[in-house]
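Researcher: I'd like a structural prediction for the single chain below. Treat it as a standalone chain; there are no partners to consider.
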Amino acid sequence: GEVAAAPVREHLWGGPAVCACAAPVPRDAPAAARAWRRGVATAAPRDFLRLRGLVFDGFHGVLPEENVLGQKFVVDMAVGMDLRKAGLSDDLADTVSYAAVQDIAREEMQGETKQLIETVAENIAARTLREHPAALTVRVEIRKPHVAVRDVVDSLGIEIYRTRDDLE
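Model: Treating it as a single chain, here is the predicted structure.
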C-alpha cells in the first residue's frame, strides 16, 4: 500500500518527540499501540490519561528526619495511550482506570521508604507500564512542597518519562 513518513510531534510538556528512524508507516497502519509494540517508528502518543495533584504522605528522603517525620509529596502523571476505542465505545474496559493508576502511585508513595524520589518515580512508571498493556508511555512528576531550603520555593522535585522500551 501507499506509505507516508512518520510525523514528528511535540510532547505536551515540551520538546520534540522525534522518530529515531525515517521508516515509512503504511497509511492504513493499525493503532499506535500495536505499532509501538512491533517496534515500528511512530510519533509519540497523542492521547493521555492524566492525574494531577495527587497528595500523599510518605517517608522518602536522604535525611533521617524525612524517614521519621515524613512529609507531603505531590504526584502528577500522564499515561500515553490510544483513547480512541474508549471514546467511541464509552466502555471502561477499553481504557485504563484512573483509580488503578492512582492505586499504583499511592502504594509506591506510601510503601517502603526510599532515599530518592527518583527510585519511587521509576517504580511507579514501571508498574504502570507492566500492569496496563494499553499504556505506551508514562510521565511521573514527584514534588516536595514543604522542603527545608534557604530560598523560598514553591516545591522541589523530579520528573521522568518512560516508554515500553525502557522496561527491562
